[in-house]
Write a structure and sequence with these properties.
The protein is of the alpha+beta class and about 400 residues long. It is built from 15 helices and 10 strands. The structure holds zinc ion (ZN).
Length: about 400
């Protein structure tokens, strides 16, 4: 709705009884003045614009029913009251009602003129701000901070704003960034589930500038499939000639799409010694025993890749030697009856040297680790519902990594 400037006449009359003139008394009284002022200012401005538009031949709004945009008559300039959370305060406005002369449909101009959706009391400009605050700190702290600076907003409104804001955030790969990503997950406490709860998963894409951006977030049970995490990125993935994916998660979804997608899988080498500690424990190998030390030390060395080697023959030799050593460790595990560890290593073997063998200088150490810490500082507060924790995480990551702001 573009138009020339309109001047709004505005007289303010404000009377207040004050017991004293201490700082907080004055600030408190000013707050109630501002509250009234905001409503009144908005009412005057809306009416000023409405009168101006009504005097034009072609209006900048149209009838919802017949799309007529020229012939209207006023029904009332002081209709029913309606409340809108106008960032700072609830503004109490009047419905400005007009009638369409071609179909007789009556409708309110108030929200049309404000540029907000019909019926909505909390516009996006407001709930996005609340949603961001709720994702940055706990709901209790968010409420406290807002109240300290004069915003009377309850926790429930902040919670609702987080859910709404998150719904509008989608993640996917950016075809203009690098053909290299990582996927990983972390546990989160869920109401009604003992112990580990569920797993939030992250798919990040490396950027040309050196940082990372988020290309997917999802939540699921441990050991469930990771389809949801990659779903939004399949289309963009097809635009890459090939894509290096570093993950320990279930990426079968890509293995199942044969056409047009060439995904090179690389095990996250950073994870392998960590995960091995767990399987050794399951195999009842005593911590710090000779076998424990030998197996871990060997696997740590195998997982450490020198990135600056650029001679093809040396690279091939290196990979060959690492594979042989890994075979020896697996043989040792089988020999000693360490079933879980042997199986784990055999499983990983195939995708451990993809990046180096393809001469892709893919860092095989995890970059998602720091991102996970960013998530954990928020999600470690209390227990969550599945969608609640996913939503808070989405906004938080969009803000820290993808340029979302409110
Ligand atoms: Zn009409």
């Amino acid at each position: 709705m573009k138009t020339d400037c309109i001047s709004i006449g505005f007289d303010c009359q404000f009377k207040v009884e004050l017991k004293d003139c201490l700082l907080m008394t004055l600030v408190g009284a000013f707050r109630s003045l501002v509250k009234q002022l905001l409503s009144e200012f908005m009412r005057n401005s809306l009416l000023g614009f409405a009168e101006h538009y009504m005097s034009l031949g072609v209006k900048p709004f149209s009838c919802d029913r017949c799309s007529n945009d020229s012939e209207f008559i006023w029904k009332t300039r002081h209709g029913k009251e309606t409340k809108i959370l106008a960032i700072y305060y609830w503004a109490i406005l009047h419905q400005l009602q007009v009638q369409c002369k071609s179909c007789n449909h009556k409708f309110s101009l108030t929200r049309k003129l404000l540029g907000i959706e019909p019926m909505k009391r909390i516009p996006p400009e407001t709930y996005k701000r609340l949603g961001l605050i709720g994702s940055l700190t706990s709901y209790r702290v968010a409420e406290k901070l807002l109240c300290m600076f004069g915003w009377t907003i309850d926790k429930m409104t902040i919670w609702k704003s987080v859910q709404k804001t998150a719904k509008e955030i989608d993640f996917s790969l950016d075809p203009n960034e690098l053909a290299h990503g990582e996927a990983d997950g972390t546990g989160v406490a869920i109401k009604g589930i003992k112990k580990r709860g569920k797993e939030i998963r992250f798919f990040v894409q490396l950027k040309k500038s050196g940082g990372i951006r988020v290309a997917g977030v999802d939540i699921g049970n441990y050991n469930s499939d990771w389809k949801g995490l990659f779903k939004g990125s399949i289309k963009a993935m097809k635009q890459f000639k090939s894509f290096l994916l570093v993950t320990d998660g279930d990426a079968k979804i890509f293995k199942s799409i044969k056409d047009n997608v060439n995904v090179l899988f690389q095990r996250c080498l950073w994870h392998i010694p960590h995960q091995l500690k767990y399987t050794l424990w399951k195999d009842k190998v005593k911590r710090k025993s000779d076998d424990w030390k030998k197996i871990l030390a060997e696997v740590m060395e195998i997982s450490a890749i020198r990135t600056l080697v650029d001679d093809d023959k040396i690279i091939d030799g290196m990979v060959e030697s690492k594979k042989e050593r890994l075979e020896a460790v697996i043989a040792l595990c089988i020999d000693k009856g360490y079933k879980h560890s042997a199986e784990y290593l055999k499983n990983a073997e195939h995708d451990m040297f993809t990046a180096i063998s393809n001469r892709l200088n893919g860092k095989t150490t995890s970059r998602v680790e720091r991102l996970i810490r960013t998530v954990n500082t928020r999600t470690n507060v209390g227990k969550w519902s599945t969608s609640g924790v996913l939503n808070v995480t989405k906004i938080r990551l969009a803000y820290y990594y993808n340029g979302f702001d409110a």
